Amino acid sequence: MSITLYHHPFSRASTVVWMLEEVGVPYELRWVDMMKGEQKSPELVAKNPMGKLPILTDDELVVTEVAAIGLYLADRYAAGRLAPNLDDPARGTYLRWSFFAPSVVEPGSMAKAAGWDFKPGQAGWGEYAAMIDAMASAVTGRDFLLGAQFSMADVVFGGTLRYMLGFGMLEARPVFVDYVERLNERPALQRAEARNAAIRKEHGLDK
Length: 207
Prior knowledge:
2 domains
């Protein structure tokens, strides 16, 4: 096993650091200077034709897209702990909210911010108000998406919610704020934040 994350702290790769810290496996961070466009280099485009971060390699395997990386890591290295087992009914909820973040929350929020003109019934992300209510329903009356058990779905979904709240991109409902406060207490998240901060400082990105 040799896990490498191609990383820049201002990219979604910063969330993957949290994922790796939760899983608890050794990994290497490979610096990619996005300001110089290194994510578009032939080496990285060969791994991800989109020319984007994050890119994670596990020996010869390449995985891209934050949700896919998280689910892969949890299934391979933390099954039963961060990912419900295949025969666990909770896996349906786990997958539901893991995919809700990139397929509904991100495009739905972009559509709202940019004032896109579209018919909600024809867009996969639907209506913005319904999206917010759905997000609230996911964490109302429970500590995490699966109840008392934290899972990788909370990194994918919760990481998106946490980012958007931090930048004022989402209504700060009390249920969201309380959920994010619980996430902030995760030692793995704190370690990831410290590691991302150290890399920002190392490369002079805090100026």
